[in-house]
Target: Rod shape-determining protein MreD
Amino acid sequence: MYRLSKLRFGFPIGLFLLLLLDGSISQSFSVQLFHYPSAMVSHLVVLWLVCGAIFEADQGEAYPMPLAVWAAIAGAVFDLYYTGIFGVYVFVFPVVIYVTRRLVLYIRPNFLSGLLIYFIDITIVEALGYLASRAIHLTTMSGSSFLVNTLGPTLAFNLAMFVILYFPIRWVYNWLK
Model:
């Protein structure tokens, strides 16, 4: 079904638009999002990828979308454009897709379970990004400071974005189907 649907072209376009929107939100609301000592990082790209995996599992696709490939491409663009360090999100985004696909095997996909899965995925993205930054000495932030000042606010912001955007993304996904 994926080969014959508008989703084949619409999914990467939506992914690219949300990649740009992530940067625009971070730039436009930088005073509110990155107020020392706290930081709220927008992960709309992860939202799009996770919703794709959830909606794909919900409809029982015979030919699944190549989400891991799109996640790696989005990770490469994210790395090169936003972080300047190639390799962190190229690895992290496909891991998120893998974890999401494993979780939807055990949890029936709906709004609340999607919220739980997205919570886990954002935690993975932020934790692996933090560990990579610690490994290459880009940050000296302690683990407890990371949990309180970055992970907590980032989870709050992204879960709010999930609640706001879940149904519009589902509508777009079904329209593209």
Summary: The chain has a mean pLDDT of 88. The helical segments are 7-28, 30-33, 44-59, 67-83, 88-106, 111-135, 143-176. Residues 2-23+40-176 form one domain.
